[in-house]
Amino acid sequence: MTMKMKPGKPRQFHLLVLLLILLLCVVIYFSGVLRPGQVKVEIKKKEIIKSNYSFIHEHWQEDKLKQLRESEDFTATRASDQFQYFLKLCDWVHRQWERSVPDPYPLCNAIDILRDIRSKKTGGFCGQYAYVLADVLKSLGFFNVRCVELWSNKEKNKSHFVVEVWCDLYEKWVILDPDNNIYFEVKESGLPANAFEIRESLFAGPAVIPRPVPAVPASQEIKKDRFSHLYANFAVSLRSDLMRHPKPLTVGDRFRMFLFFKDKNTNEFFFGNSIPYIQVSQRKEDLYYDCNVVRVEYTIDKDEGDVILFFFTDASMPNFKAFSISSDGGKTWNLLRGYRYRVKKSRQPVVVLAAPLNMYDRPGCINTISIEY
């Protein structure tokens, strides 16, 4: 006896199996099994803030940098972190001479300033302290440093000279005043402040506090802020390559080579109804741009599934040498001579740390790249 099946059932069964196989393929595809390039890449710092202005930095092979580093010998200067190191250098400069009038006015580099003041040929005040500190920092590999000229609204022609240096630890510019031996702290965050932040505090911005260098007991803290008003108007130098400058900078020279920040709070009449600086910007980023940073791009090898990283400084590090790479959480670092780095496909998440390195082997800011398949 022959059993007859309804003609529709085999077709329905085959369609059901086909649908199940198709669904399984879709699940497998989106799970990444059939897509070796499927990977999640997260980059900590994605954008670099850039200025519209060109800044000229001291060249790492400048002879006077080596002369300064060797003649003064800072090898014994130690600190717990980069900013504390800056404070110790600021204090060192402050203690080199008693504040006095620079007459005749010396050249604008640490070698000549220290020699002339120590020999009693001349004196030095805020400008000389600032030039010396800037050169000391450069001689030790901190090339993103500049002088800042301040003008108070309280007193006519009351000006002051300080130093701003890029701090990789906090990824920001910070003010050091070697003449008064102080720095400023943003009260809310506890971070060191830059000239812009100090100025903002004068116009209802977050409060800043002057701090002595070095740290002193609370009973000796600065009780009255006699300094912040100086930051009502400020300009930053567009060049720091002054060690070979053949003549002392004049006021006119500074008006030509400094970039003045202007906004709605700028007191123009203080300058006689016109700002004397040739270069003026209302864009904060023109003065406060990123330094010593790594921008990262990536692609995926379709055949192997590896992630290929590409590193760029976008000219944010003066005297750039190479990239330094770590894949073990910063325990060991390897020099990458090029700009391309391959990360092999792995079942475990991979974290790559990348930092730029300058010609004095000073590393910059660390960017973190997290890769997960």
Quick rundown:
By secondary structure, this protein is α+β, with helices and mostly antiparallel strands. The protein has helices at 8-31, 63-72, 82-94, 110-118, 126-139, 195-201, 251-257, 284-287; strands at residues 40-43, 145-151, 159-167, 172-176, 182-186, 208-212, 233-237, 258-261, 279-281, 295-300, 307-312, 320-326, 334-336, 340-343, 350-358, 367-372. It is built from eight helices and 16 strands.
Provide a descriptive summary of the structure in words:
24% of the residues lie in helices and 24% in strands. A hairpin with a 6-residue loop joins strand 10 and strand 11 (307-312). It starts with 7 loop residues before the first helix and ends with a strand. It is elongated, with a radius of gyration of 29 Å. It has 8 helices and 16 strands. The chain has 2 domains: 40-49 and 291-372, Immunoglobulin-like (Sandwich), CATH 2.60.40; 63-282, C8orf32 fold (Roll). The protein has 373 residues and is of the alpha+beta class.
Name the CATH class of the largest domain: Alpha Beta
Q: What structural class results from the helix and strand content?
A: alpha+beta
The H-and-E topology, N to C, reads as HEHHHHEEEEHEEHEEHEEEEEEE
Overall pLDDT: 91
Main β-sheet description: 6 strands, mixed
CATH architecture assignment name of the largest domain:
Roll
DSSP summary, beta strand count: 16
- CATH fold type of the largest domain: C8orf32 fold
Poorly predicted parts: 1-5, 32-37
Q: How many structural domains are formed by the residues?
A: 2
Indicate the radius of gyration in whole angstroms.
Answer: 29 Å
Strand content: 15-25%
> Helicity level, as a percent range?
10-25%
Calculate the terminal CA-CA distance, rounded to whole Å: 59 Å
Shape: elongated
Strand order of the largest sheet: 4-3-2-7-8-9
What is the count of DSSP helices, taking H or I runs of 4+ residues?
A: 8
